[in-house]
Amino acid sequence: MIKMCAWCDSDLETVFAEDHPEDIITHGICVPCQEKILGPNKVEWLEFLDRLSVPVVVIDAAGMVETANIGARKILQKELPSIVGLEGGVVFDCIYSALPEGCGKTIHCSGCTIRNTVMDTFQSGKSHVAVEAPLVSGTPGNEREVSFLISTEKVKGVVLLRIGTVGAV
Questions:
Q1: Are 14 and 33 in contact (CB under 8 A)?
Q2: φ and ψ of 53, to 5 deg
Q3: Which residues have C-beta within 8 Å of that of residue 168, sequence separation ≥ 6?
Q4: How far is CA 61 from the centre of its chain?
Q5: What is the CATH number of domain 2-168?
Q6: Which residue in 126, 138, 131, 137 sits closest to 114, CA to CA?
Q7: 12 burial class (0-12, 13-18, 19+ CB within 10 angstroms)?
Q8: How far apart are the first and last CA of the chain?
Q9: pLDDT, tens digit (0-9, with 9 covering 90-100), for 50-78
Q10: Contact (Cβ atoms closer than 8 angstroms) between residue 82 and residue 76
Q11: Max Cα separation, the chain?
Q12: Secondary structure (H, E, C), 12-69
């Protein structure tokens, strides 16, 4: 797998592993670009994220959405004001987030791949690449299972969640 900076296209690393073929290219962010974007003269997050060709959601340590770029909003079929400050499960329309306990607090949440992957990245700093993440979406009686292919990267106290292939299971 080849990892490149999504901002300047510099080579970050090449990882050889069975579960990450060499022909897969994933993106992260190099230190100089982090400083340019998040440093003292930081570029507005959304302006920067909207330049990316991949859908990205920015999530804080509490699992709340800080922002999402155009690509992510298109996949999620939501406008920015309706998702900022909400739990990830609410934004992704997880059926269990509508239960009285709320997102992250039901028995179902312990097995949520999206939540577990994001929280692992926060705690360990480890990035995850192309993780299959099924999710039950919709409303009771009208539920459907969808599957996302997600990647995560921790940058300056937030996790960038890249949304890959989306499909019905």
A1: no
A2: -85, -5
A3: 144, 145, 146, 147
A4: 13
A5: 3.30.450.20
A6: 131
A7: middle
A8: 26
A9: 888 889 999 999 999 999 999 999 999 99
A10: no
A11: 50
A12: EEECCECCECCCCEEEECCHHHHHHHHCCCCCCHHHHHHCCCCCEEEECCCCEEEEEC
Contact 28, 12 (CB under 8 A): yes
Q: Measured between alpha carbons, how far is 75 from 72 in angstroms, rounded to an integer?
A: 5
Is 53:149 a contact under the CB 8 Å cutoff? no
**Residue 59: exposed, middle, or buried by beta-carbon count in 10 A (0-12, 13-18, 19+)?**
buried
Residue in 166, 160, 164 with CA at minimum distance from that of residue 121:
160
Domain locations along the chain: 2-168
> pLDDT (tens digit, 9 = 90+) per residue, 82-141?
999 999 999 999 999 988 998 889 898 899 999 999 999 999 999 898 899 999 988 778
Token pair 């990035």: residue? 127
